[in-house]
Specification:
By secondary structure, the protein is mainly alpha-helical. The chain contains 12 helices and 2 strands; from the N terminus they run αββααααααααααα.
Amino acid sequence: MAVRSRGAALAFVAPSLLCLAGAVGYPLVDAVTTSLYRWNLISGHKRWYGLQNYIDIAQDPGTARVAIVTALYSGLSVVLELALGFALALIFREGLSRRLRGFAGLRVILCVPIVIAPLIWAFYFRSMYSPQFGAFNVVLGWFGAAPVAWVNSPALALYSLVVADVWQWAPFMFAVILAGMLTLPGDVVEAARVDGASWTQVLWWIELPLLQPILLVAVLLRLIDSIKNIDLILVITQGGPGTSTEILNFFAYRTSFQDFQIGRGAALAVIVLALILVLVIVLLGTLRRLNLTEKEA
């Protein structure tokens, strides 16, 4: 009976699996295959190149620069989003637990940036960073300060993109962490407080360990999204000034559709995919260890 039910279940999910294989499997195989060719989109010349595209990428001095920019952009964005999301979750948990007016509605309003398409968000922030008419420089003008070249300065452009990314996705962290906080077992926290534990001790020794799986998943999702982000860079800075905001995914785009080296661009895209898979494997291993630790405890 179990074998028959398993076969029936496979029959029901087979169409979905076939669609998934077609939608994900074919483009992936095609990208890996393309990365093994030297293919110029302008001339149409295409010849077998083997792993030479990957070797050229590893030997290119620009690759290390792009990797550093990607790490800085993704690291800063995720850390700030996590910090702001966690702080907001603590504030709103307290407000909701005390049934303060306005917190329920404000929670919904804070999450509005999440539902805005990243491309529209990028155009919105491009207007806000305008040297003459942007909202940030208008506010500075109210205080008599000179306009700032937010995205036209190599020293500020990357951090301006981080601000735009954090503004949109810190609410995602807030929503996930708050949902996790609201599901924490109240009896454990109450027992710790009866035993004399302070608020900070309860947070550090009880709540944070219980929230670890949720925090790990939220950080991984945002880290993956920031690594493969292209909307903000494409719309606001085009990788500039110079190459100061060029991250891996935009580097792959520029190599493919501006330098017209399709094979090398595909190799860069495969490298980005491999990096994301490594992050997923690390997370799954960490979650498995956490589950084993909880079972032993």
